[in-house]
């Protein structure tokens, strides 16, 4: 994102979107293994279509986590999302578990042995980002897109609104003046709904959630407020479109306002740097901005499979920084161990905390008492100020 005047758009999808159903199930599998053994290895992909779900991938963990248990947990996840429809029903869906043992070739490369520290589970580049556009230090378009859908989901789950179905999408376009967001120029919400509701009725059900989320005076013109533009959205979820784990990676991160390394998060245990190093990069970027060292901060980390230490650490404060970026990169590497083991230890990632991350973004959330969203803490601020401010 740059200074100047422009429009920028981000989208979000709800927990009932087909791909998000798959992310939720895959992360439920991760949580099941980590609850039984915090050092389990999991790489789970899920496919969901009309009353049919397949779990596939590689795992290494206790025998107590059986295929039957995972099928039961997948059903519970689908029920919790809210699917009890003819074309996709938590109780009636045909669910197959095809998880198998992790490759011994991969295991020998990433496991600790002798004097060798645990290596990264794969090569890759990961990005973290933070900015001052919102209180959560997230870009405003993706923040508001998430919050609209979260508000609608809360109303659906509580029974306050009975017309919404689980599947929904949002898209928010903001006008930036001199690099700062000032108002929405368009808002798009498509939501699954009860068959008896027409487009106008759904529009009025959606409206208060948009008004609640956007700052006062930011609502777009009525002509640019689009709700279910196709007119009808009764058939939704995996019955309407096939879902697959890991297809909403930009929704999961910064809505396109910052780079993405390419790797998906859901279904992967925290030894996979696709996930844990992306969390670490966000954690460091957020602390840099929270410490007042920059108004915007992008951090890139790179890894090689089987190698513990990152190959590179790159910091870009987009000309908003108050300290030398090269020095900042050196300090960040010193105050946090960025090896896979170091990241997991520092952020407490070997816990069953991942199903809750599978919808409404992995970033910009509140840390919870069970250790979830620990990467959103700003507990490095004092140390960064001491060393650099």
Key terms:
four-stranded mixed sheet, alpha+beta, 10 helices
Structural account:
The chain is of the alpha+beta class. It has helices spanning 18-36, 67-81, 104-110, 140-158, 199-213, 249-252, 273-290, 325-335, 340-347, 381-388, and strands at residues 6-13, 41-49, 52-60, 84-85, 88-89, 94-101, 124-131, 164-177, 180-193, 225-227, 243-244, 296-303, 312-316. A four-stranded mixed sheet has the order 1-8-9-10, covered by helices on one side. A four-stranded mixed sheet has the order 6-3-2-11, covered by helices on one side. Helix 1 (18-36) crosses helix 2 (67-81), helix 4 (140-158) packs across helix 5 and helix 7 crosses helix 9. The mean pLDDT is 94.
Topology overview:
Layout: E1 6-13, H1 18-36, E2 41-49, E3 52-60, H2 67-81, E4 84-85, E5 88-89, E6 94-101, H3 104-110, E7 124-131, H4 140-158, E8 164-177, E9 180-193, H5 199-213, E10 225-227, E11 243-244, H6 249-252, H7 273-290, E12 296-303, E13 312-316, H8 325-335, H9 340-347, H10 381-388
Parallel strand pairs: 3-6, 9-10
Antiparallel strand pairs: 1-8, 2-3, 2-11, 4-5, 7-12, 8-9, 12-13
Quickly count the helices.
10
Q: What string, H for helix and E for strand, traces the elements in order?
A: EHEEHEEEHEHEEHEEHHEEHHH
Q: What shape does the CA trace take?
A: flat
Compute the CA-based radius of gyration: 21 Å
Going across the biggest sheet, name each strand in turn.
1-8-9-10
Helix content, binned percent: 25-40%
Total beta strands: 13
Mean pLDDT comes to 94
Q: Strand fraction band?
A: 15-25%
Specify the structural class: alpha+beta
């Amino acid at each position: 994102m740059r200074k100047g005047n422009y429009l920028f758009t981000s989208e979000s999808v709800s927990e009932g979107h087909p791909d998000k159903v798959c992310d939720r199930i895959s992360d439920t599998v991760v949580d099941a293994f980590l609850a039984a053994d915090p050092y389990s290895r999991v790489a789970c992909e899920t496919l969901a279509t009309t009353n049919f779900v397949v779990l596939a991938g590689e795992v290494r963990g206790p025998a107590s986590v059986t295929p039957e248990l995972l099928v039961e947990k997948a059903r519970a996840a689908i029920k919790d999302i809210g699917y009890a429809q003819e074309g996709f029903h938590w109780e009636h869906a045909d669910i197959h578990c095809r998880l198998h043992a992790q490759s011994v070739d991969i295991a020998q490369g990433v496991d600790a042995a002798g004097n060798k520290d645990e290596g990264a589970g794969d090569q890759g580049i990961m990005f973290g980002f933070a900015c001052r556009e919102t209180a959560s230090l997230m870009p405003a378009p993706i923040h508001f897109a998430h919050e609209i859908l979260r508000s609608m989901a809360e109303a659906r789950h509580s029974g306050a609104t009975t017309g919404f179905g689980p599947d929904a999408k949002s898209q928010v376009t903001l006008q930036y003046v001199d690099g700062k967001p000032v108002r929405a120029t368009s808002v798009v919400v498509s939501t699954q709904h009860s068959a008896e509701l027409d487009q106008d009725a759904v529009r009025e059900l959606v409206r208060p959630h948009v008004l609640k989320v956007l700052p006062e005076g930011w609502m777009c013109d009525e002509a640019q407020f689009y709700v279910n533009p196709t007119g009808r959205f009764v058939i939704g979820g995996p019955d309407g479109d096939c879902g697959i784990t890991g297809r909403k990676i930009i929704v999961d991160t910064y809505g396109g306002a910052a780079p993405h390394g390419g790797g998906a998060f859901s279904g992967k245990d925290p030894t996979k740097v696709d996930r844990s190093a992306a969390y670490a990069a966000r954690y460091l970027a957020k602390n840099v901005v929270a410490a007042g060292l920059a108004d915007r901060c992008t951090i890139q980390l790179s890894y090689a499979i089987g190698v513990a230490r990152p190959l590179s650490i790159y910091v870009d404060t987009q000309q908003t920084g108050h300290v030398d970026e090269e020095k900042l990169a050196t300090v960040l590497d010193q105050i946090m161990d960025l090896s896979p083991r170091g990241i997991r230890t520092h952020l407490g990632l070997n816990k069953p905390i991942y199903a809750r991350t599978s919808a409404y973004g992995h970033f910009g959330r509140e840390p919870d008492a069970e250790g979830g969203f620990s990467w959103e803490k700003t507990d490095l601020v004092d140390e960064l100020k001491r060393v650099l401010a």
